[in-house]
Amino acid sequence: MRLSISEINELLANDKFIRPMEMKVVSRTEEEIVIEMPFSDGVKRFGDIMNGGAIMTLADVAGGFSLLFDEDVVNQVTINMSTNFIRPISRGPITARGKKLRSGKIIGYSEVTIYDGDGSLCAIANGSWYLYKE
């Protein structure tokens, strides 16, 4: 699927689950996608740090979308994802870099690094996604 940045942002804006997180793609290549989102009240937990589930959602989106740039891939769903939380996030914008590691016949693999507003590495996620192809 060859989507432009504006087309991906439209998909994110129209997804009822993701829309409140205000994710936006800021760049992409054939191997990597960069997504930013604000550090808003909707993703905070007590202690004014980002909720782990919100971090994993951002990682899932970045990892899955990093696999959509092969010509014949039309969609993807998560099979498995493992996240290591390195430090709490308390400042935005939050940046996720999803990097395609391998895209096979039906399964793709991606690594996602997540940074806080200071540019500090806060989480690393690795996962596999089932690829729907034309």
What can you see in these coordinates?
The model has no long low-confidence stretch (mean pLDDT about 95). This protein has about 130 residues and is α+β, with helices and mostly antiparallel strands. The strands form 2 sheets. It has a 6-stranded antiparallel beta sheet, covered by helices on one side. The protein is globular and about 45 Å long. The protein has a single domain (about 5-134), classed as Hotdog Thioesterase (Thiol Ester Dehydrase, Chain A, Roll), CATH 3.10.129. Helix content is about 20%, strand content about 45%. It contains 2 helices and 8 strands.
Q: How is this fold's topology laid out?
A:
Blueprint lengths: L4 H10 L9 E5 L3 E6 L6 E2 L3 E2 L1 H14 L7 E13 L8 E10 L3 E9 L5 E13 L1
Antiparallel strand pairs: 1-2, 2-6, 3-4, 5-8, 6-7, 7-8
